[in-house]
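Try this one yourself first.
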């Protein structure tokens, strides 16, 4: 070994470095830095010049910029790679994205230094690159020497990670390296003289007869053929797990004596190597599993479900059978996720999957489409009622309480069912039909199942039409701000306003919020609509201020989706600044659910707005699912009693109703209380006696257009409006 190493030539020449950049100043700077540190460096301004120099001379290392006009750094790397140049390339670039670094290293770069670079770091990287280049040269020289030495050849073979073997012309082992003992549990001595077939798995013998005992040479010889070898079950030292076969990748070539007995080349045996590909096979299986399964629940994903559904449709069509596609959505899952955390939500989905599987046959397929949505394929269904029975069984199972980490959770599901061929004859139409039926259940109270029918399709189409028309409404300015007065119950004077949106549809005339706001929230059109609403309200407030009207606070409804946006606070503050309005002109009304969605983030944003003088009111108070402890976390000023509680107040009410409890709570927390939906004098008197400071409802006025409200404000300012009672 020492004799061979002595023959390896030492690199006596000074390493040559090529600097490539389109910036002349950078070239000069780098060249001076390298020369001062004893390196021989040549500049090349631009990629085209670099390729010319690489073609004309050999270099040990190249400093390369990526972003250059014309021929860029990536093209230079591709040239180095395509020509097989041994040069070490260090990318020195201002492009610092992960993808840029990854692409450069993938294309063969040795290392990556970001601009502006640290001189010490760059020099260290250069020295490491030159050292690596030197080591590669020495290794190449050593490999050339080893090829001439049989002793070293055997040393390499016996220490190879692969099984290396030689067969005679009858297929018996004449040589096999020591790797067989580690991989297969056989000692070399046990295999020498044995036929190769003793190692081959019986199912691979036919292929092995052609490739393991290869007779061909050159390009026609065996490459990358996968086989399975038997493992010696009696060996105690074999390293393998619970398996009896070893997957290998085989390369083999025939060996010939150029001077046979008859003067022709004589086949004398086969030389080959077999690489253990167990890890690769397992990785391929894992990748294949991940491509077709949901990692959280272990269920098939959308791709695998659609593939199975396609096969089931073909089978049902041939056999003139029925099948059912079920679309299932977990009710109120976002509430669990937002209030208890994503970890709890993940566990809930896993339990849901287990319970649904417990209601199915072996031939049924349950898949997770994403989020809290599941799909179910029921093949060979004889009649519609059978699919309904499965849906009922699933709903009953899901209604049972779920215990996770000392938390008891009650939830349910909405299920839509599409039958083949009545509801569709393709994968797309069946899934879409089941989805539409599920949303029909959602809109009608949840926790039920429904079969698809054409009327639902019309409703779905209507949903899409409303979404499309809302886009046009924003573009053509069809929305308008209406205002409803808030009145002091004692003086019956206006003390505030609530801004309410109305839609002047070209065909449907005046459209109320309940008919389009839910769809706007589903499609996130509520974000631009909400921005428009806030801007239009501020504009109207400025109009009142310019007329000298008394200052009045205006409430504006805010959606939870708006609060989730990163720029929510900035947009509100910027709008106020644009109109030169202070925060005390505005009160934001937010539902309990809106506050509880991403609770910590919402609280932080509302505190920033409160610091600007903006009031915060909880709309529809008492109808949410959350604990009242959240009131301590948010800068709440006002509780707004939902109209559903107010309407229960009658003229002869004697029992204490829920409004009393809310009033007591507001008083205890020193919060303002506003009652909405007041329509009778009896309700007015009851609310007044509870100490409510503001009342809103048809008794005092319906929502009116901005101009009608402006006229009302003018009368109020001129003293012509003594009372707002029974206004409008």
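Now uncover the answer:
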């Amino acid at each position: 070994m020492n004799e061979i190493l002595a023959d390896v030539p030492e690199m006596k020449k000074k390493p040559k470095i090529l600097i490539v950049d389109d910036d002349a100043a950078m070239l000069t700077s780098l060249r001076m830095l390298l020369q001062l540190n004893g390196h021989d460096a040549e500049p090349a301004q631009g990629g085209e010049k670099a390729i010319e120099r690489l073609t004309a001379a050999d270099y040990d290392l190249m400093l390369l910029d990526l972003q250059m006009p014309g021929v860029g750094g990536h093209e230079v790397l591709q040239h180095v790679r395509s020509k097989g140049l041994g040069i070490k390339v260090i990318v020195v670039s201002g492009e610092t994205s992960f993808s840029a670094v990854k692409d450069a290293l993938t294309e063969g770069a040795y290392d990556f230094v970001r601009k502006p670079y640290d001189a010490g770091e760059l020099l260290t990287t250069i020295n490491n690159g030159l050292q690596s280049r030197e080591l590669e040269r020495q290794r190449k020289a050593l490999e050339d020497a080893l090829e001439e030495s049989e002793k070293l050849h055997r040393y390499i073979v016996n220490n190879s990670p692969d099984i290396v073997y030689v067969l005679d012309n009858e297929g018996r082992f004449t040589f096999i390296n020591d790797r067989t003992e580690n991989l297969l549990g056989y000692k070399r001595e046990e295999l020498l003289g044995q036929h190769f077939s003793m190692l081959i798995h019986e199912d691979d013998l036919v292929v092995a007869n052609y490739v393991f005992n290869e007779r061909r040479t050159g390009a026609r010889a065996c490459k990358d053929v996968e086989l399975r070898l038997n493992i010696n079950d009696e060996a105690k030292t074999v390293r393998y797990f619970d398996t009896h076969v070893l997957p290998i990748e085989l390369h083999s070539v025939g060996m010939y004596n150029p001077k046979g007995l008859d003067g022709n080349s004589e086949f004398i045996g086969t030389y080959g190597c077999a690489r253990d590909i167990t890890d690769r096979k397992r990785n391929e299986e894992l990748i294949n599993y991940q491509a077709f399964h949901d990692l959280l629940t272990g269920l098939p994903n959308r791709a695998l479900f659609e593939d199975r559904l396609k096969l089931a449709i073909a089978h049902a069509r041939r056999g003139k059978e029925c099948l059912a596609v079920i679309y299932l959505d977990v009710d109120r899952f976002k509430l669990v996720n937002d209030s208890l955390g994503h970890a709890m939500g993940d566990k809930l989905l896993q339990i849901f999957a287990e319970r649904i599987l417990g209601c199915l046959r072996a031939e049924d397929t349950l898949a997770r489409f994403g989020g809290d949505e599941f799909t179910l394929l029921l093949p060979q269904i004889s009649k519609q009622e059978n699919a309904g029975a499965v849906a009922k069984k699933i709903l009953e199972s899901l209604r049972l309480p779920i215990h996770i980490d000392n938390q008891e959770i009650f939830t349910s599901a909405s299920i839509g069912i599409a039958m083949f061929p009545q509801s569709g004859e393709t994968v797309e139409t069946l899934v879409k039909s089941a989805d539409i039926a599920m949303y029909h259940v959602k809109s009608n109270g949840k926790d039920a199942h429904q079969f698809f029918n054409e009327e639902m399709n019309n409703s779905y189409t209507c949903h899409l039409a409303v979404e499309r028309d809302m886009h046009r409404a924003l573009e053509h300015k069809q929305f308008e701000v209406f205002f409803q007065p808030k009145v002091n119950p004692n003086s019956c004077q206006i003390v505030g306003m609530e801004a309410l949106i109305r839609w002047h549809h070209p065909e449907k005339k005046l459209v109320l919020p309940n008919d389009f706001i839910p769809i706007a929230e589903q499609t996130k059109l509520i974000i631009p609509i909400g921005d428009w609403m806030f801007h239009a309200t501020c504009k109207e407030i400025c109009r009142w201020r310019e007329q000298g009207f008394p200052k009045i606070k205006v409430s504006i409804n805010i959606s939870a989706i708006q609060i989730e946006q990163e720029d929510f606070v900035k947009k509100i503050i910027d709008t106020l600044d644009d109109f030169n309005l202070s925060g005390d002109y505005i009160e934001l009304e937010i539902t309990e659910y809106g506050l509880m969605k991403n609770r910590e983030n919402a609280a932080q944003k509302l505190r920033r707005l409160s610091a600007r003088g903006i009031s915060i009111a909880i709309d529809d108070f008492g109808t949410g699912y959350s604990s009242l402890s959240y009131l301590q976390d948010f800068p709440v000023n006002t509780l707004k009693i939902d109209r559903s509680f107010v309407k229960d107040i009658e003229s002869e009410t004697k029992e204490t109703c829920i409004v009393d409890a809310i009033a007591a709570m507001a008083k205890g927390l020193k919060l303002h209380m506003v009652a909405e939906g007041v329509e009778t004098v009896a309700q007015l008197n009851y609310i007044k006696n509870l100490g409510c400071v503001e009342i809103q409802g048809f008794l005092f006025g319906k929502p009116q257009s901005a101009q009608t409200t402006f006229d009302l404000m003018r009368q109020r300012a001129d003293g012509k409006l003594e009372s707002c009672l029974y206004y409008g």
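Discussion: The domain at 293-452 is CATH 3.30.70.270 (Alpha-Beta Plaits). The chain has a mean pLDDT of 85.
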